[in-house]
Amino acid sequence: MNYAKSKLANKLVVITGPSASGKDAIAIEVLKWLPLKRVITTTTRPPRPGEKRGINYHFVSRERFREMIKQDLLLEHIDFSGNHYGTQRQDLRKAAAAGLVPLLRVDPFEALRVQRRNPDALVIFVKPESLQIIKKRLIERGAGIDDIDKRLRLAKEALSKENIFAYSVVNRDGRLDETVKIVRRIIKNYLGI
Questions:
Q1: Could you read off the pLDDT of 4-15 as tens digits, one per residue?
Q2: 31, 97 contact by CB (below 8 A)
Q3: End-to-end CA separation in angstroms for the chain
Q4: 17-29 burial, b if ≥16 CB within 10 A, otherwise e?
Q5: Sheet harboring 122-127: ordered strands across?
Q6: N or C, fewer C-beta in 10 Å, the chain?
């Protein structure tokens, strides 16, 4: 794929949706086909088994994260379950310098902040067919009852904000390929390719 760097300049793609909506799986697939680069989230939470620094997340101390906020080094940030998460501006610049469009995979509340700061960004809201699907997926992941309840409450709140975003795509259970095709088409139109 050889795309004109200038054509992709100043573009930003955001995939958002509630927990267990499938946004991670969709992001992985579209990265295979389009001139995008996933921007790695920075967090204060400790690495989980198997997670690698700089691949899954940028892991930093709470002090460092607060310093990044003070220095306006983050495009957006949010607190979730006692930890901080955010997107470093330098990671967006690195993607653009490589001739690629930054791809953020963030929750809907972060996506709102990104959209406010970057009104020309493409934000795609991914949702499941129902809250029961979210619950099923969270159980399959091994989430605890308290975590499931919290994420379902957040999912309800996120779904109420769906109409704020330009695009909303239903990720039907067992039909990831169809969802990926729809998302790819939306992104290609936005990028003009």
A1: 556 788 899 999
A2: no
A3: 10
A4: bbbbbbbeebbeb
A5: 36-38, 101-106, 13-16, 122-127, 167-170
A6: N
What residues are paired with 85 via a beta bridge?
Answer: 43, 78
Tracing tokens 């953020």 back to the chain, one arrives at: 104
Compute the distance between CA of residue 98 and CA of residue 69 in angstroms, rounded to an integer. 25
Q: pTM higher than 0.90, yes or no? A: no
Position 69 confidence tier, pLDDT thresholds 50, 70, 90: very high
Residue 33, Cβ neighbours under 10 Å: how many? 13
Spatial distance between the Cα atoms of 46 and 60, rounded to a whole number of angstroms: 9
pLDDT tens, position by position, 114-134: 999 999 999 999 998 889 998
Q: Set out the domains of the chain in order of their start, with CATH numbers.
A: 5-191 (3.40.50.300)
> Does residue 157 surpass a pLDDT of 50?
yes
Helical packing angle, 145-159 and 131-141, nearest 10°: 150
- DSSP secondary structure letters along 84-129: EEEEEHHHHHHHHHTT-EEEEEE-HHHHHHHHHH-TTSEEEEEE-S
Distance CA 121, CA 156 (A): 24
